[in-house]
Amino acid sequence: MTNFAIELNGISKSFGPVQANKDIDLAVETGTIHGIVGENGAGKSTLMSILYGFYVPDEGSINVFGEPLEFNSSQKAIEAGIGMVHQHFMLGEPFSVLENIILGAEGSFLLGGAMSKARETLLQLSERYGLSVDPDAIVGTLPVGVQQRVEILKALYRGAKVLILDEPTGVLTPQEADALFDILRSLKEQGTTILLITHKLHEIMNVTDSVSVIRRGEMVGHRKTEQTSPEELAELMVGRKVLLEVDKAPAQPKDVALSVQGLNYTDERGIQRLSNVNFDVRAGEILGVAGVSGNGQAFLLEVLSGMHAPSSGRITVNGAPLAKTPDLVRHQSIGHVPEDRQHMGLVTAFPAWESGILGFQASALYCNQGAMKTGLIKEAMGDLMEKFDVRPPNPLLATAKFSGGNQQKIVLAREIDKAPDVLLVGQPTRGVDIGAIEFIHRQIIAMRDAGTAILLVSVELEEVLSLSDRVVAMFDGFCSPDRVTAETDERSLGLLMAGEFERTTSEGMAA
Amino acid sequence: MEFIELMLSLAQSTLRFTPILIFAAMAGVFSERAGIVDIGLEGKLLIGAFVSATVAHYAGFGLAGLFAAMGACIVFGWLHGLATITFRGDHVISGLAINFLAVGLTKTIGHALFAKGGDTPNLGGPGSTGWERLQGLIPKQFWLDLAPGLSENPLLLNILSIHGWLIILAFITVIGTWWVLIQTRFGLRLRFVGEEPQAIDTAGASVTAYRYAAVTIAGALCGIGGAYLSTSNIASFTPGMSADMGYLALAAVIFGKWRPFQAMLGCLLFGFLFAVKDRLDGASEGILTQIPSQFFEALPYILVVVVLAGFVGTARAPKAVGRPYVKERE
Fold first, then answer.
1. N or C: which end of chain B has fewer CB within 10 A?
2. Which residues contact B142 (CB under 8 A, 6 or more apart)?
C-alpha cells in the first residue's frame, strides 16, 4: 500500500499532429492539495480528462490508491473514487439540485425512492463539509459560486476521495474564490485528496501543498509549495524569465477624451443591461473596468463602439457626441479590441491580411474607388505583423491557423496602428499565453504613454490592477465610483465587484 | 338542444383526430427531449399508415399491421439516428429527407402492389372476420361466435370489444410518457441528454445510446399513430393521408413546451380545429355556404400559426436540441 492517491506513469496523448501530453509522470500524496499549473493549451485539461476516463491515452498507466485504473470509462474512474469539477459546469440548468446530483448514480430505476435517499445523504454531506445548498432549487437560478458547490457535492455524493478541480476560480469573485478555498481546506482535513488545475500562480501559493508544472504537454517540474516562488513557477511555465509586474511610469493624464454620463441601455428583450453608468477617461490614462463576467461589461463596450444605441445618457468623444454606427465611431478615432476576437474581432476563415484591415476596408489607405489595393495591403500587413511579433509573420495564412495570442496581436496591431484617440479594449489576454500577455501589456502601456485614452475591460483582476491607473467595477449593469489603482487592492475591489457600492438610477433613486 | 348535439358531435370528431396527433406528439416529446429535432414525424406517420394497412390486408389481421408499422417506423427512426447521431448530420435536413422518402415510397410501392394509384384495398369489407381493422381489440364477431346470445346485449358486447381502444391507448401513452420522463432514471437521463449531454458523458453513461433509445421510442409511437390513421380511423391507406398531422404534432410539442400533458392539450386544441373545419365545410345552408371551402380547409393551419405565434416567445427548447454531441478537447 502506497500513500499516493494518484500515480501517472508515462502518459502520452496526441490529437492528430498535436502532442497534447508527452510522457507525463505525476504522483499525488493522499490527503494533500496538489496544484497543476501551466499556460493555456499546455495540456493540463487533457491530462485530467485522461485521468477521468474521458480520453484514452496513447501510452502510459495510472494507479489510483495503488490499484491500476482502466481507461476509457468515466464510470471506472468514479468507482475508483475520482470526482471532477469541470471548468464549464456539467449541470442541467432547468433541473433541480437534487436531480443534477443523482444523475448517473440514481441507484434504482424508479426515481421516487432514489430522490428521498439522496436528499438525506445530501444533507449529511452539506453538514459535514459546510456546503449548504437547497436540494430543490433550480440550478439555473443559483449564483455561479453555489453552482460550483453543487458540482463538488455531486462528486462527493459519488464517494469521491480524489477531487479534481479544473480552473475553478475563473468565474468567481475573489470572495467566492476564498469561500471555495475554505471548502477545499476543510475537505483536505477530512482526508480528501485534491488536484487543483489553474494558471493563476497566487492560487497555487495560497492553497496547495505541492505543485507540478506542465509546459507544452511535458511535465517540467515538481515542487513543494513552501519551497518555491511565483517567479520560479512562472519561469518553469514559460521556459524563460518573465516579468510578472508590469513596468510602467506614472500616467500623465490630459483632457477628458471619452466621457460617459448617466448611460442606460435596455436590450431588445427589455432587460436593463446598463444602469446609470458614469465615468471619464482622460487622454494618456488607462481606466480599468473590473467585474465578474456578465455584469454588463460586454454591453458597455458594444454601446461605446456604436453597435447598440444607448437608451438614454450622454456619451462624448473629445467633446462631440458619440456617432451612431460602428463605422462612424471609427471615424471619430475610436479603436475597439472586442472581447470576443474569434466572433467580433476577426473572420477566422479569411487570411490574416484581410482580417488585419477589417473595419478599415473602405478607407483610402486600402481601397481605391471600391477596388482593394491587395498588393499594398499584403505588404503593409507583413510589416505590421513583424512589428507586433505575430508568429508566423505570414499575411497569407488563414486567421484560424494562428494561436490565440497571435490572433489577438493581429487585432491589436490593426487598432493600434491607426493611433486612435480612444482605445476600447475587452479581455486583451483571454486565452493568451504568458509570453504574449507580457507583449500585449507593453503595447497597451505604450499607447497610453503616447497619449491615448484607454478603457480596459477585463475579468482578470490582476490584469486590471497592474495595467490601469484608475479602476471601476461593474455589478449587475451598475458601475462603481472610480478608485485610484495604486491606492486600492484586490480585497476592496472584490467588494465593489460583489456590488458593495451605492447604486443609483438616473432619476437619483437608490436601487 | 341543437347546441348540445353540435358540441357532442364536435367532441366526437375531435376525439377521432386527436390520437394521431397525440401519438406523434409524444414521439416528438421523446425525440426532442433527447436533443433530436424530429421533423420526420410526418413521414413516419405516413409510412406507419401505409405499412399497417398493407400488412393488415395481407395478414387479415389488424394487430399484425400495427406491429409491422411500429417496426417500419423504428427502422426509419434509426435512419434518422444514423444521419444525426452517428454521422452528426443536420436534423432538419435528415427529417425532410425522411418525409420526401415517405411520400414517394408509399405511393410507389402501394401502386406496384395494388395498382390503385397508391391506395390500399379496403379492410373489413364483405366477408370480413372482424380482425382486419383495429377497431375492437377483440372483434365483435369473435364474441358472437363464442356466445351467439350476446347479440341481444349490445352494451356488454361493445364493452367486451372495446371499440376505439387506440383512442384510449393514446391518452394512456400521455400518462406513460410523463411517467417515464419524470419518474424514472431512464427519463431523467434522457432529459439531461437533450439539455446538457456532457453531464451524461461525465456521469459515465452513453449519450449515443440514449439518443438511439429516444428515436426508437419515437418510431414505435409514430407507427401506432400511423396504424390508427389507416387501420382504425379509416379502413385503407390513401397517399398523403397524414395531411401534415406530423408537423401539427410538432407544433403541439412546442405549444406544450416539450411537456407531455401540455402537448396533449395542444393536440386536443388542434384536433378540435380540424373537427370544426369538417363541420363548417359540410354546412349546407346559411351564410357559411358563401365562403369557399378552401378557406375552411386552411383554417386550422392558419389558427395553428396564430396560436404558436402567441406562445412561441415564451417557449424554451431543450438546450442541446439539434446539436450533435462531440467530445471536445481541452
1. N
2. B130, B131, B161
What pLDDT score does B284 carry?
62
Q: Which residue ranges in chain B fall short of pLDDT 70? A: 1, 126-127, 161-163, 282-289, 311-314, 327-330
Q: A4-238 with A243-333+420-511: one CATH topology?
A: yes
What class has domain A4-238?
alpha beta
Instruction: Give the three cell numbers for residue A143.
Output: 449564483
Locate the domains of chain A by residue range.
Answer: 4-238, 243-333+420-511, 349-419
The CA distance from A8 to A229, in Å, is 25
Distances (CA, A) of B321 to A20, A81, A90, B79, B209: 31, 32, 16, 18, 16
Q: Residue A137 burial (CB < 10 Å; 0-12/13-18/19+)?
A: middle
CATH class of residue range A243-333+420-511: alpha beta
Q: Taking the C-alpha atoms of A392, A398, A399 and A404 in order, what is their torsion angle to the nearest 10 degrees?
A: -60
Length of chain B: 330
- Enumerate chain B positions whose Cβ falls within 8 A of a Cβ in A: 182-189, 191-192, 195-196, 198-205, 316, 319, 327, 329-330
Would you tell me the crossing angle of helices B91-114 and B41-59 to the nearest 10 degrees? 20
Nearest to A53, CA basis, from B328, B202, B200: B202
Predicted ipTM > 0.90: no
- In one-letter notation, the amino acid at residue A179 is A
For the stretch B97-139, pLDDT in tens is 999 999 999 999 999 999 998 899 988 776 677 778 887 777 7
Q: Output the DSSP codes for A261-285.
A: EEEEEE-TTS-EEEEEEEEEEETT-
CATH number at residue B27: 1.10.3470
Q: C-alpha cell of A162?
A: 480524489
What does the pLDDT look like over A422-474, one tens digit per residue?
999 999 988 777 778 888 999 999 999 999 999 999 988 888 888 999 999 99
Enumerate the residues of chain A whose CB falls inside 8 A of the CB of residue B329: 15, 20, 46, 49, 55
Cell of A476: 449587475
Report the C-alpha gap between B305 and B289 in whole angstroms.
Answer: 25
Q: Which of B63, B66, B31 is nearest to B49 (CA)?
A: B66
- Geometric angle at alpha carbon B141, from B135 and B143, rounded to 5°: 105
DSSP assignments along A334-359, one per residue: EEEE-S-IIIII--TTSBHHHHTTTT
A93: Cβ–Cβ under 8 A, 6 or more apart, which residues?
A138, A139, A140, B195, B196, B319
Handedness of CA B80, B86, B90, B93 (dihedral sign): negative
**Bridge pairing between strands A18-29 and A4-15:** antiparallel
Quote the CA–CA distance of A413 and B289 in Å, as a whole number.
Answer: 74
Is B317 among the domain residues?
Answer: no
- Contact yes or no for B198 and A52 at CB 8 A: no
Among A41, A74, A99, beta carbon nearest to B204: A74
Task: Give, in degrees to the nearest 5, the angle at Cα A385 between A381 and A389.
Answer: 175
Q: Determine, yes or no, domain membership for B141.
A: no
* Residue of chain A whose alpha carbon sits nearest to that of B313: A269
pLDDT value at position A444?
Answer: 93
Place of cell 369557399: B292
Number of domains in chain B: 1
